[in-house]
What does this fold into?
Amino acid sequence: MDCYKHQGMSVVAQCHNCGKGMCSECSERFTVMLCEKCLLENNEQAKRKVIVSFVISIIFAVIGVYVGVHSGASGVVGAIGYCYLGLSVPWGYSFVGKFITAPYFKAVLALFLGWAIAPFSIYRNIKELMVIRATKQEISANVSV
It folds into this structure.
């Protein structure tokens, strides 16, 4: 059986998603054993998930500013504080949700821990978007060769 991409190369592995045969070069190319098509589809799903996380954070940040302004927060600094607090809640909720199932307790912990977790979660997600973009560019460049 030949590799789906390199004709004449014998198959040493299969794509974990679709089962296409892959030669050693194709199977060692990425950390996950997926063919290019399946990897791009997987990355698109991950990209959508990250973008949705950012949109939800922005919505919570706007809610935080609204609450800050209408609760009598002291000027711009108070509004920025409430904005950051609102922005950090979804990241904290996502993190805490891995360990705790009780929704009320999870929400309270997200409020208290989110501010510390948010920068790391945001960094991790931006890094993931950059890896997705680089992988897509690498595959596109390899196809055109």
